[in-house]
Amino acid sequence: xxxxxxxxxxxxxxxxxxxxxxxxxxxxxxxxxxxxxxxxxxxxxxxxxxxxxxxxxxxxxxxxxxxxxxxxxxxxxxxxxxxxxxxxxxxxxxxxxxxxxxxxxxxxxxxxxxxxxxxxxxxxxxxxxxxxxxxxxxxxxxxxxxxxxxxxxxxxxxxxxxxxxxxxxxxxxxxxxxxxxxxxxxxxxxxxxxxxxxxxxxxxxxxxxxxxxxxxxxxxxxxxxxxxxxxxxxxxxxxxxxxxxxxxxxxxxxxxxxxxxxxxxxxxxxxxxxxxxxxxxxxxxxxxxxxxxxxxxxxxxxxxxxxxxxxxxxxxxxxxxxxxxxxxxxxxxxxxxxxxxxxxxxxxxxxxxxxxxxxxxxxxxxxxxxxxxxxxxxxxxxxxxxxxxxxxxxxxxxxxxxxxxxxxxxxxxxxxxxxxxxxxxxxxxxxxxxxxxxxxxxxxxxxxxxxxxxxxxxxxxxxxxxxxxxxxxxxxxxxxxxxxxxxxxxxxxxxxxxxxxxxxxxxxxxxxxxxxxxxxxxxxxxxxxxxxxxxxxxxxxxxxxxxxxxxxxxxxxxxxxxxxxxxxxxxxxxxxxxxxxxxxxxxxxxxxxxxxxxxxxxxxxxxxxxxxxxxxxxxxxxxxxxxxxxxxxxxxxxxxxxxxxxxxxxxxxxxxxxxxxxxxxxxxxxxxxxxxxxxxxxxxxxxxxxxxxxxxxxxxxxxxxxxxxxxxxxxxxxxxxxxxxxxxxxxxxxxxxxxxxxxxxxxxxxxxxxxxxxxx
Length: 760
Ligand code: ZN
Ligand code: ZN
Ligand code: FE
Known about the structure:
By secondary structure, the protein is of the alpha/beta class. Among the domains are: about 5-90, Alpha-Beta Plaits; about 190-360, Alpha-Beta Complex (DHBP synthase); about 535-735, ATPase, nucleotide binding domain (Nucleotidyltransferase, domain 5), CATH 3.30.420. Helices cover about 30% and strands about 25% of the residues. A hairpin with a 2-residue loop joins β6 (about 190-195) and β7 (about 195-200). α5 (about 200-210) packs across α9, α13 packs across α22 (about 745-755) and α19 (about 660-670) packs antiparallel against α20. The model has no long low-confidence stretch (mean pLDDT about 95). The site of fe (iii) ion has 7 residues, from α13 and β24.
């Protein structure tokens, strides 16, 4: 007979709120072991006693057969004296140990719960809050660790006997599912419409009828409110646009299932997997002909599947009424304000938009937007990292003192590090909006509390006037200012664990440079712990500064005048016919005098200018509208690529856009389509960028290239540059887990501070 041993086992990773203790319990039963399992602040602790080989097999299976939503980072065991224990139990959570527990992210409705939800014989038929250990709310309801019901917003709901039985039965799917609930004991919905309130199933029924009739509704969802309406009703979408003051900005849609997604969009296998994943992000899909209204002028449409039982129940009721089409499902906020979380916020801020409100009484503790993902260069990438992904950690290749990186001002997200883990906050938004600064502070307090991190170092953008810089300065700790594009490039390096020397290519709309100018197409050499600027787009003046991102004829005018000098009016003047004459004259005088004309090397503004030159639009109503519409014209049949000049000015390479500008103006004059101009621009930028990168790589002896910055969310460019660099034998790294845009920049700031980089 084998000797009896007892082992104490520590499991770390995403092991709370994902059915881990039931998993351990079932394994212990299978191997006939005694002992216990419990959650504590550092993860899951187990003591298991039985014959040596059985205990070893049990330890192996803890990780090998882990639940689908769990992530095991480490399993450490040591022998302890045997206690003669024969039974196995789930012990009460312990809470005094040092904090290393990871809060699980919210998980989309699982197939088992969906089946019950749609089964008229089930006691949870159309119950909008059903969940189990494999699915349901997590981050949005958790107030403190360990992740147990009393520390969530479910604390106020007393389980009924039926739920209590499931919760206590180790063989039940809902064993220790903290948010477990049913219609008898759990949260309920209420509908407010026309001064009346309906509750329970009648509320859902009525909400579905109102949506069907073309009304705009505010729905309290998982991480906040959505504004919803039929996507196939132009009048409903128009009303929503008018109320949100978003004339063109794309809205995401929700479809009942994958088949419905495939009806309106082309869906690759990787995109299908993302749609149906437990993270259930909005996925940018290539649109078929119909449903232009949610995303005017764009070839892609953001699509998601119902990820809460509330959404699934609504779609089931709509299907009963014969509607299986998409609903617009956009964040319940105004412009760039934070997503509304509770009844009073929705009433004060969405009251004018929505004609009805569907509420529930399970409080949302952490507000969080939908995540947005897209496929490019053979990988799934995040454009917005929020629900389903936050607060999962990004693993770092090195450890440092606990630190906070504050991110940048646009698409803000911050980053907290603990040991070798980086925790990105959810998408916060544009910090020029004061409500988002409150959201930043609120989220920082909550996340540092959950993670038990007290930052000793605070990294921030180099920009002296950024709100994120001011927020950083107001905090205690050592400050580290990080140049914007260095942070972009290091963000990509950090998520790939790249520690050696590399070339960074950071292409974006705007970032403060070390020379006080606005940078945006930067080739940076990282060697040891230093970085330097090795190449960039030749500076051009941006009359009026930031307004040029919307009045995109401004950067176009600056580039045209630079390309043609005194003959610009004769060569290209007629392109500006749509610009009011007085405005054109004023801006011309600004350029003559160099007044309020900051110099920029922004590739974003160059793409803006070319979308104007191609005739796509004169002004934009949202950031990057022109370039996104330009990209939507691809692929177009067009030979040739626009050429860029390349000059070496005291060791720094400069790309001159003038030849490309002249070629585009000539193409337009020759009557070529915007699609051809778009194709030649994308091919030209990719070729020039790859050529410059290859030159620098050989000059500095580098084999690795990191691509980052918002411009690399342009699929055609990312794929073009990646392919061209690989053809030259270079290894290419680009963002996947965190956005390439400023939403991922905090990761690079953190890595910069941990590694102690300096500029040379
Ligand atoms: Zn489930
Ligand atoms: Zn119940
Ligand atoms: Fe940026």
